[in-house]
Amino acid sequence: MHSKALEVTVGLFMLAGFASLIVLALNVSGLTFSESKNSYTIYASFENIGGLTARSKVTVAGVAVGRVVDITLDKDEFSGIVEMAIESEYDQFTTDTTAAILTAGLLGEKYIGLISGADDEFLEEGDLILDTQSALVLEELIGQFLFNTVNQ
Amino acid sequence: MITWLRILGKTGLQWLSVNGRSGVFIASVLCGVPNVRKGLPLLMKQLYAVGVLSLPIVVVSGLFIGMVMSLQGYSILVDYGSEQAVGQMVSLSLVRELGPVVTALLFAGRAGSSLTAEIGLMKATEQITSLEMLGVDPLRYVMAPRLLAGFIALPLLTLIFNVVGIWGGSLVAVDWLGVYEGSFWANMQAATDFKIDVLNGVIKSITFAFVVTWIAVFQGHDLTPTAEGIGRATTKTVVYSSLAVLGLDFILTAVMFGDF
To answer: What ipTM is given for this predicted complex?
Structure first.
């Protein structure tokens, strides 16, 4: 009798432990199991990617439509190639879509904002966006500002 | 001069022999063939003593540590207008560092010391010798269930600590200080990676579990069976395992998160 109660409490304890792992996985780290299932890949070439990292958001009008998967350097052009996984239901980006690296708040995370154009054709798996706007680098901005002030 | 040399030599030899004995001890405990039918009830009993009875202290300290971190983080971050980042701060510091380390320290104080004292008293009252006389292997009957229970219980306690701490953090930040709930959780999920942060934290706590229970059970096994000896061994358990946890934590952090 007593041993049964003991075993039940130990069982509950272990259950609580495993439940905590699941909570950490799903709620805290935002792990999803169907991430790569329904998405297609497009690329964008940036002059300067600033502080963009893998797993950053890709948004259209502020709505998240995908994630940054990988960032590599194009060795010929010395530009940053950003690989993005876009959810398949958002497949109507025209070929003249532009991409910009934006910042959430003053010190917040970097993310990519896409703005659709007016072309008739749509971006497909593996396409590259060339019309991009680089990340704002604060030092460059201050440098330009100082340069302008001196010139005046 | 010669006396000093002698003392140095004696200390060195003692140190070596203790290390050797603890190595032989852990090897012979772990290599003993387990008897599932007889061992399981013993393991259950130890899991209850070591795991379930440590839950209150772990849950309460987790809650308060999460709440304090949230409060402190908020008061700094609000100056920069980025108080949404409090979620990622609480979750990263709990999952990576505070969870495994603080739980291991609490565990050493709560469960480790009681393991040492219990085994020490068994030895002082010659229960261990009696077991041997009866033909029962004390390593398998007394030591192995306690070691295994420690290995299993501490990682689970750490996970519970993390969850309770993050919940406490959200309680303070979202419900009390009014951080927007959506950005609190979204920032946390964007910053916390399951493999890099959560699983590495679990690996840390498994290592700590191994070290802390090893030290506790070995100190109980190896003490001088007197009242004074038990007291000294209990102190040693807490001091050694706390130092080992903190030292190992630095090494593990350097290996896991150090490659910038």
So the answer is: 0.77
